[in-house]
Design brief:
Rossmann fold; alpha/beta; 244 residues; 5 helices; 9-stranded mixed beta sheet; 23% strand
Length: 244
């Protein structure tokens, strides 16, 4: 199995998603920037034993960016497209993917038992994220049978998260296992710290991604190379790597 992790803007017309041929990836599993509501100064996270405010260090997604991403994902994916988003944006993402020609299937839910409570106490806290699921029109197949699209995983694992919105690896592994097959090529144009890619490699899938921020690209590359080294030691004939 191999991976390619590009440093740069996935919407760059020369080096981004536009450089990939139509229907050149099998699946997309991605976590784009959320809406502006998630980028307020009131966002609170747990840092060891203290609760602190933490503004996300990247810009919120715009409607134009969402439309462009939706069009690219619809053009590129042969099968499943999974997009993490806040619940308020699930319809927006469904419409963007449908505008590109995909069929909206439904919105799944990632429940966070250890999600941050609402510390003002005047309203409920947010304990889940949405995952919009789309697919090209026609026959569909996954490995989950008739189970529900509800996933329950703690947000915080052991140690410090390598990215402000890092997804738990067990969650990403389950999504990859359910929606993709051995040897498939998985795309994540918003790779962050590389969890989608790590899960893909662990399960025998190939991976291609983009990351705009050089520091997160470095973290993701280190994680992917580390995972590749472990797998390469076990099966050296199967693995290679390339970063650009």
């Amino acid at each position: 199995m191999s991976f390619t992790l590009n440093l740069g803007d996935c919407l760059c017309p020369l080096t981004g998603l536009a450089s990939l041929a139509d229907k050149s990836v099998d699946h997309v599993v991605t976590d784009p920037p959320f809406e502006s509501e998630a980028h307020t100064k009131q966002r609170r996270v747990k840092r060891r034993s203290a609760i602190v405010t933490s503004v996300l260090p990247f810009a919120a997604i715009t409607s134009d960016q969402r439309a462009a991403i939706g069009a690219h994902l619809a053009r590129l994916a042969r099968r499943w497209v999974l997009v993490f988003c806040q619940v308020e944006a699930s319809v927006k993402w469904a419409l963007a993917l449908e505008a590109g020609g995909l069929e909206y299937i439904r919105t799944m839910v990632w429940i966070k038992p250890d999600g941050m409570p609402q510390y003002t106490g005047d309203r409920p806290g947010m304990g889940y994220e949405s995952i919009v699921v789309a697919h090209p029109k026609g026959r569909k197949k996954w490995s989950g049978g008739g189970r529900t699209g509800v996933f329950t995983f703690n947000k915080n694992g052991l140690g410090a998260a390598p990215h402000p919105t890092t997804k738990p690896l067990p969650l990403m592994r389950e999504l990859i296992e359910l929606f993709t097959n051995d040897g498939d090529l998985v795309l994540d144009p918003f790779s962050g710290s590389g969890s989608t890619g790590v899960a893909a490699l662990q399960l025998g899938r190939r991976f291609i991604g983009w990351e705009l921020d050089s520091s997160y690209h470095e973290i993701a590359t280190r994680r992917l190379n580390g995972e590749r080294a472990i797998l390469n030691a076990a099966q050296p004939e199967l693995f290679g790597a390339r970063t650009t």
